[in-house]
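1st attempt posting a full record on here, be nice pls
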Amino acid sequence: MLRFGTLAGGPLPGTGQRPYVGGMLNYERRCAEIINQTSLLVSSLDGADLSIQVPSIPDWTLNQLVRHVGHAHRWADLMIREKVREIPYDRNGAQQLASYVGEKASDVVPWLLEGASSLAEALSEVDPDEMIAVIGGHPGPRVWSWRMAHETVIHRWDVVNTLGVPFELDPEVTRDTLAEWTALALPYAFMRWPAETAPLLGPGRTVHLHATDVDAELVIDLTGSRPVVRKGHEKAAVALRGPVVELVLAVYRRRPVDGLEVFGDSELLDLFLDRVRF
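the predicted structure (as tokens):
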């Protein structure tokens, strides 16, 4: 899960830029998607062996991944219900997973559903613009509804991919997932790993993400001191084209770009996807 340690409460260090909190879905829809995506996730767990390794996150078993998602929900729930101003990172159990072994789906499914429902309820009971659990100067309810909805989307893919179950995602939700990645994960990577991402910046360095099945085109401009994202169709140093869900999986490093259309500087694209990690 993306951790916003140095994003909380201020701009990205060295950029003066605050993460944009936009996207395709409204606040109420994102709250609903926390429950919906969790329900879809658990529907694939019936009879599953939770001890198997997750290929996309090889350090975790399915057991640990499910607990990770549930603890992330509960951490966000705690912050919203207690209306904390500062984010309590020491109360986040989403990375402390070693003890979760030998559980069955029947042990974890009710717990996971309960946490998702509680978080959605907590978010619905506060003003979306209330300055609690603040991230990057933005109201926590808006950002955490966005982050937790798509945290669940991506980890649902991890689950179904592990089990060999088909993955389907509403196009509007997928567009919102892509927007969330560009608004939060992308600037986070440049802040968190400045030495690794620095080679991406330079004259003429632009990346175009072009969905072929929905209206979603983004240009990531790397020509300055920080990435800048624009909507629309522009000629870029490299373009990646394909169905929007495949673009999402590519930028989240869940799939290679093989099978998608790549035009232009493929080496820049490979470097970009390697360095901008979640």
